[in-house]
């Protein structure tokens, strides 16, 4: 009797400890980011740091600002989202409505899942040696690398996230509403436009928010493709850096104020992605409760 | 000119290759009357009903064989979309579109078909249709609220109004009151008796009392076959077939 009780009890204790580790690690990361970025923020001032375009690494005249990297992050993410929306919606409709439950949909679904599982360094390599020369041969830019190439590859990378979740929400639209629309003489396109999309809209929206969260933080691919320059990008064909790519590029040889500034950029990225994911999850949760 | 609005000839329907869910049904539906389809679960009554507005076209696995005439024209040879505009449908569970207001629900048939109406036409259709289902007084001040905010019975009347908005010749109803309480059910039955002067109604029902109260003619189906069809009172008082008798006595289904 005693033995069973103690096994039961110790298992529960073990569970509690394991569950407790997760929030501990998360707050540990946040704490490290805050503590290490403190120097930079106190030196330049929080809002000054956000709005400064300078990234001057010369030892006697150090000055760091986040604006070029915030711009780079927002530009690549926005462009990737715009490019990924039509493709993701098509895939979602293909899998969630037109070929729902069919073999061809399962095949496409598997490929989409496969796409999600490809390591980002492979996307980067492909972008660098296949897509970049295409951009160069089209005469769009001399070096090829830049925001455009990074965004195109990023768009492909986030399609699986947006498409599979959107397809789930499209599938969730109850048959009775679709049949009701058909019974009034609607065509399939009209049913999609007036019934399926409006009813699945908040779910589809949230799946794009989550995809956006992926794009904001994607590091390896972007670092390989964006050209890694620290000036404000002037156009989509320009090179640049994102919050993630500058950190990945420079953390190894940084110390002092520069390191603290990199931590500050990382903190910004942490906050932006956390808020984005939170918004996406809240919408999904609301949606599934109202169902 | 015959009095039949719909004539069903040699109709067979199957879900899988060798099982017939509706077997060789022949029946004429009288214009401006209510016709009930009864029978135990799985007897094929909904399957028969859904053939009349070509709903089976939506599913590749369902095969429909035979002829259905609407005013002498074979609907199997028409465009499914045209058939469905002439033959409306009301479903088992009230299903007003949750993303649309009460008014928008009434107009849904027009929106869905890409037909544009001016403000005046819209108001007129909304008022006419909501009045015809006795909902106008109850909802005229809350037209912009969501249809799902109404009670179950009101929602179902809204769905009838939505189906009537396109002025169909036939209204198909698939157990329209099975999700409603007795009072809401009684209102719908009253309504159907009024509506039949404008539209011929075919109603699938589990509720024998309902068929007895409102249907001019009744069908009794069993295992996909149309066992007995004719005057409702005669069918209830003096059924000709053993299966009908035992169903009415509560032994089957």
Description of the structure:
The complex is a heterodimer of chains A (291) and B (253). By secondary structure, chain A is mostly helical. Chain A has a single domain (63-290), classed as MetI-like fold (Orthogonal Bundle). Chain A is built from eleven helices and two strands. Chain A has helices at residues 2-44, 46-51, 67-98, 103-117, 120-137, 147-172, 175-183, 188-217, 220-225, 243-250, 256-290; strands at 55-56, 63-64. Chain A has a two-stranded antiparallel sheet with strand order 1-2. In chain A, helix 3 runs antiparallel to helix 4 (103-117) and helix 8 (188-217) packs antiparallel against helix 11. The radius of gyration of chain A is 23 Å and the shape is globular. Chain B is α/β, with parallel strands linked by helices and 253 residues long. Chain B has a domain at 4-97 and 170-248: P-loop containing nucleotide triphosphate hydrolases (Rossmann fold, 3-Layer(aba) Sandwich), CATH 3.40.50.300. Helix content of chain B is 36%, strand content 26%. Chain B contains eleven helices and ten strands. Chain B has helices spanning 45-52, 80-86, 102-106, 108-112, 119-132, 136-139, 152-164, 182-195, 208-214, 232-237, 242-248, and strands at 4-16, 19-30, 34-38, 63-70, 73-74, 87-90, 170-174, 200-204, 217-222, 225-231. Chain B has a six-stranded mixed β-sheet with strand order 6-7-8-3-9-10, with helices on both faces. In chain B, a hairpin with a 2-residue loop joins strand 9 and strand 10 (225-231). In chain B, helix 7 runs parallel beside helix 8 (182-195). Chain B is globular and about 55 Å long. Chain B starts with a strand and ends in a 5-residue tail after the last helix. In chain B, 44% of the residues are buried. The model of chain B has no long low-confidence stretch (mean pLDDT 92). Classes of the chains: A mainly alpha (291), B alpha/beta (253). Chain A binds chain B through residues 174, 176-177, 179-187, 190-191, 194-195, 198-199, and chain B through 53, 55, 58, 81-82, 84-85, 88-89, 91, 93, 95, 97-99, 108-109, 111-114, 159, 162-163, 166.
């Amino acid at each position: 009797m005693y033995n069973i009780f103690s096994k039961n009890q110790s298992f529960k204790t073990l569970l509690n400890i394991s569950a407790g580790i997760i929030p501990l690690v998360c707050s540990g990361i946040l704490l490290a980011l805050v503590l290490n970025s403190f120097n930079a923020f106190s030196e330049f001032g929080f809002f000054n740091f956000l709005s400064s375009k300078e990234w001057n690494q010369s030892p006697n005249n150090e000055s760091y600002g986040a604006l070029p990297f915030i711009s780079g992050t927002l530009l690549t993410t926005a462009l990737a989202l715009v490019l990924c929306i039509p493709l993701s919606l098509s895939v979602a409709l293909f899998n969630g409505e037109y070929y729902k439950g069919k073999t061809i949909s399962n095949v496409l679904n598997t490929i989409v899942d496969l796409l999600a599982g490809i390591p980002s360094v492979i996307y980067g390599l492909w972008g660098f040696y296949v897509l970049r020369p295409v951009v160069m041969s089209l005469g769009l830019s001399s070096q090829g690398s830049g925001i455009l190439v990074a965004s195109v590859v990023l768009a492909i990378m986030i399609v699986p996230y947006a498409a599979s979740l959107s397809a789930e929400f499209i599938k969730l639209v109850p048959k009775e509403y679709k049949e009701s629309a058909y019974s009034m003489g609607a065509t399939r396109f009209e049913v999609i436009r007036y019934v399926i999309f409006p009813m699945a809209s908040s779910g589809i929206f949230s799946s794009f928010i989550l995809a956006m969260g992926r794009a904001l933080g994607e590091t390896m691919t972007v670092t390989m493709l964006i050209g890694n320059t620290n000036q404000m990008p002037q156009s989509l064909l320009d090179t640049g850096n994102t919050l993630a790519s500058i950190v990945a590029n420079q953390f190894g040889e940084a110390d002092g104020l520069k390191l603290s500034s990199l931590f500050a950029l990382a903190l910004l990225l942490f906050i932006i992605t956390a808020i984005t994911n939170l918004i996406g999850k809240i919408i999904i949760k609301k949606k599934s409760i109202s169902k | 000119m015959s009095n039949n609005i719909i004539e069903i000839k040699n109709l067979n329907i199957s879900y899988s290759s060798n099982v017939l869910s509706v077997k060789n049904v022949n029946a004429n539906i009288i214009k401006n009357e209510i016709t009930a389809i009864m029978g135990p679960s799985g007897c094929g009554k909904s399957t028969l009903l859904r053939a009349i507005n070509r709903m089976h076209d939506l599913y590749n696995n369902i095969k429909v064989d035979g002829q259905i005439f609407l005013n002498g024209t074979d609907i199997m040879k028409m465009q499914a979309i045209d058939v469905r505009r002439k033959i409306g449908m009301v479903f088992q569970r009230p299903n007003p579109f949750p993303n649309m207001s009460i008014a928008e629900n009434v107009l849904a048939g027009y929106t869905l078909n890409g037909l544009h109406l001016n403000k005046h036409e819209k108001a007129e259709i909304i008022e006419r249709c909501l009045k015809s289902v006795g909902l106008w007084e109850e909802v005229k001040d809350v037209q912009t609220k969501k249809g799902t905010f109404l009670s179950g019975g009101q929602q179902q009347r809204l769905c009838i109004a939505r189906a009537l908005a396109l002025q169909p010749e036939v209204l198909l109803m698939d157990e329209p009151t099975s999700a409603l309480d007795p009072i809401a059910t009684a209102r719908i039955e009253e309504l159907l008796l009024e509506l039949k002067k404008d539209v011929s109604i075919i109603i699938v029902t589990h509720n024998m009392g309902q068929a007895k109260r409102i249907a001019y003619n009744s069908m009794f189906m069993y295992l996909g076959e149309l066992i007995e069809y004719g005057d409702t009172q005669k069918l209830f008082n003096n059924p000709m077939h053993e299966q009908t008798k035992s169903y009415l006595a509560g032994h089957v289904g």
